[in-house]
Amino acid sequence: MADHNCTVCHPGCARCTDGTLTGCSICANDTGTVYYKEIGATVCNTTCPDSQFISVSVPFLCQACSSTCITCATVADNCTTASCPVNLYYLNNSCLSQCPTGYYADASRLCQGCAVGCFSCFGAGSNKCSKCQTESGPTPYYLKDVSTCTTVCDNGFYGNATTNLCVACPAACKLCSS
């Protein structure tokens, strides 16, 4: 003879297959504590796991983060930690395929701002410029050999305004302007 006794659901479950918090089919939210159902699981919890977030627009159900975020909040592409999946770089709550112009990727895959005077760069410091900033002040010239920007080229070089490079003077000249 089969036992037809009902099992009481966990207080976080409105409907369940057993009396545990992991056997929920619908979460309960009338107990004063708000529970959220995890995606693809029969688990109700007061938070959502990594790669899922609590959405204001979809009550009581965890929603999936963007594939570019390990953790997110409020919306799928609002990454909440600087931990991005492999080959992505973190900047301003986003995981990007590359750092934008004016930033470089550090060893932790965080996008860091270039040094003052650098329009683009490949590392920290004024000697890691790959292109100089030309929007304000005197025209900067790029020194290829030392990856630095300058407004005055060294003796034996002149500033080429077309290329923004310090170019070597002809061999017979110590100083030149073109």
Protein model, in words:
By secondary structure, the chain is mainly beta. The protein folds into three domains: 64 residues, no CATH class; 47 residues, no CATH class; 63 residues, Ribbon (Hormone Receptor, Insulin-like Growth Factor Receptor 1, Chain A domain 2). It has a two-stranded antiparallel ribbon. A two-stranded antiparallel ribbon has the order 3-4. It has a two-stranded antiparallel ribbon with strand order 5-6. It is rod-shaped, with a radius of gyration of 29 Å. The mean pLDDT is 85.
Q: How big a fraction of the residues is strand?
A: 25-35%
How many strands? 16
Rg measurement, Å: 29 Å
What is the mean pLDDT? 85
Poorly predicted runs: none
Residue share in helix: under 10%
Question: Quick one: overall form?
Answer: rod-shaped
Class derived from helix and strand content: mainly beta
Distance between the amino and carboxyl termini: 104 Å
Please provide a brief summary of the model.
The protein is mainly β and 178 residues long. Helices cover 0% and strands 29% of the residues.
Task: List the SSEs and their pairings.
Blueprint: E1 13-16, E2 24-27, E3 36-37, E4 44-45, E5 52-54, E6 62-64, E7 89-91, E8 94-96, E9 103-105, E10 111-113, E11 118-121, E12 129-132, E13 141-143, E14 148-150, E15 157-160, E16 165-168
Antiparallel strand pairs: 1-2, 3-4, 5-6, 7-8, 9-10, 11-12, 13-14, 15-16
